[in-house]
Amino acid sequence: MNDFLTRSAEYLPLLLNGLWLTVAVTVLSLVLATALGLLWALLRTSGVPWLSGPTRVFVELVRGIPILVVLFYIYFVMPELGVDLTAFQAGVIGLALTYSCYIGETFRAGIEAVDKGQIEAAKSIGMKRPMMMRRIVLPQAFKIVMPPYANNSVMLLKDSSQVSVISVAELTMQGKMLASSTFDNMTVFTLVALLYLCLTIPLNLGMGRIEKMLRRSR
Amino acid sequence: MISFNNVHKAYGDHEVLKGINAEVGKGQVVCLIGPSGSGKSTLLRCVNGLEEYQKGDILIDNDRVNAEAKSIHALRTRVSMVFQRFNLFPHMTALENVMEGPVHVLKESKADARKHAEELLTRVGLSEKMDFYPSALSGGQQQRVAIARALAMKPEAILFDEPTSALDPEMVGEVLQVMRSLAEEHMTMIVVTHEIQFAREVADSVLFLDGGKIVEQGQAREVLTNPQHERTQDFLRRVTHPV
């Protein structure tokens, strides 16, 4: 045990560097994925065929591709098309794109779950669609989607480890490098797992808190 | 002020309105009665464009109701609606529900809208409940908030779609009372209802619908106490003596 602690102290600074990068990738991707997801959901529920149709195709395509392939595509193929991206940028874009489709589907389900009577009531006081979405539908939809959205966020955090394949030196990548140079797999990966838990457990608790607050507010 | 000229509506092959002709004068209360599936709610919902109709015209002071046209939004601010299931906005207090339309659609100042909303909620007997969320209100209270919300738009007419059907029996009276007071102030109202007693006492005229057609129409007291048509007689017998 003592041994574990001394070695941990030795490894921790490197792993913490990775941890910060994991947080940065996750936060940026989540913000981007949420904004895009909302956009997809609004387009899909717009009732305008030339908006909802292509969105649907796009979402289905991206959802059908493994996240690793998306990351490879953005990092290795885009430069051939003249778009040069750093590994970090490619990682964030790839994660955000993939998760925007998951989150978008969640939001769409939430929007569709809002009682039709609410839409009729909003219409009956003369609201046009944008105002109706903003003032009546979305506030109620957000409450409905909070649990699956929280779940998506935690999944995104964990999937941020995937960007290690395009050499973003986040937590998993740091762990792998450290393990292969020290051969101390046990200590390193235990620490890596613990550090992920240090992020996921508070995130889960925080989301649960928000959920409870939302439920009480109505 | 609201006229129906040969209004037809069908869902695919299924015709639900087969040529409705009727007239609702300013300040009149008209009750639509009839068995379920007769088309009375559909007809009401065509008036503010929540449903489309395919043939004929519905005119509100000579403006044709067209659910597809841009004009429908402005038209809806002139004709409010009260729903069977209240449809209050659950994320807003009673007061906010009533202020929502005036502030955001009519662009009234918040202060004016609040003052008016408070007056209206007081009027429907809910001065103590203004800051309550709908989930904390009884069905009867929610429906009275919904009526206040409809009134807040300063409408030319109000449509009621079975306003008491979802209520527990002991709460029906308080809602009908509010509607009765509106009628006394000559608010133009079209009411889809099964409350025959209310129709008889409050309505100016009654339309009896069956199978998408108006079977009988006329003065409320006349139609309801002395129905001419066999189907009207049969229907009234059933709703007034259910056993």
TrEMBL record, chain A:
This chain belongs to the protein called: Putative glutamine transport system permease protein GlnP
Summarizing the function annotation, the protein's role is: Part of the binding-protein-dependent transport system for glutamine; probably responsible for the translocation of the substrate across the membrane.
Keyword Signal set for record: no
Q: Name one GO biological process term.
A: amino acid transport
**Which one of the record's GO molecular function terms can you name?**
transmembrane transporter activity
Highest taxon of the lineage: Bacteria
Q: Provide this UniProt record's keywords sorted from A to Z.
A: Amino-acid transport, Cell membrane, Membrane, Transmembrane, Transmembrane helix, Transport
CDD domains annotated for this entry? TM_PBP2 (cd06261)
Please give the Pfam families that the UniProt record associates with this protein.
BPD_transp_1
Per UniProt, subcellular location reads as: Cell inner membrane; Cell membrane
Cite the ABC transmembrane type-1 domain residue spans from the record: 19-207
Signal peptide feature range: none
The residue ranges crossing the membrane are 20-43, 55-76, 186-208
Q: How does it sit in the membrane?
A: Multi-pass membrane protein
- Please name the InterPro entries in this protein's record: AA_ABC_transptr_permease_3TM, ArtM/GltK/GlnP/TcyL/YhdX-like, MetI-like, MetI-like_sf
Entry similarity comment: Belongs to the binding-protein-dependent transport system permease family. HisMQ subfamily.
An annotated GO cellular component? ATP-binding cassette (ABC) transporter complex
UniProtKB/TrEMBL annotation, chain B:
Which compartments does it reside in? Cell inner membrane
Primary location: membrane
Residue ranges constituting the ABC transporter domain according to the UniProt record: 2-236
- InterPro entries noted in UniProt: AAA+_ATPase (IPR003593), ABC_ATPase_HisP-typ (IPR030679), ABC_transporter-like_ATP-bd (IPR003439), ABC_transporter-like_CS (IPR017871), MetN_ABC_transporter-like (IPR050086), P-loop_NTPase (IPR027417)
Under Gene Ontology molecular function, one entry of this record is: ABC-type amino acid transporter activity
Give the matching PROSITE patterns.
ABC_TRANSPORTER_1 (PS00211), ABC_TRANSPORTER_2 (PS50893)
Give the family from UniProt. Answer: Belongs to the ABC transporter superfamily.
The UniProt entry lists membrane topology as:
Peripheral membrane protein
Per the record, its GO cellular-component terms are: plasma membrane
The name on file for this protein is Amino acid ABC transporter ATP-binding protein, PAAT family
The keyword Lyase appears for this protein: no
Per the UniProt entry, what species is this protein from, by scientific name? Answer: Marinobacterium lutimaris
Q: Which UniProt keywords apply?
A: Amino-acid transport, ATP-binding, Cell membrane, Membrane, Nucleotide-binding, Transport
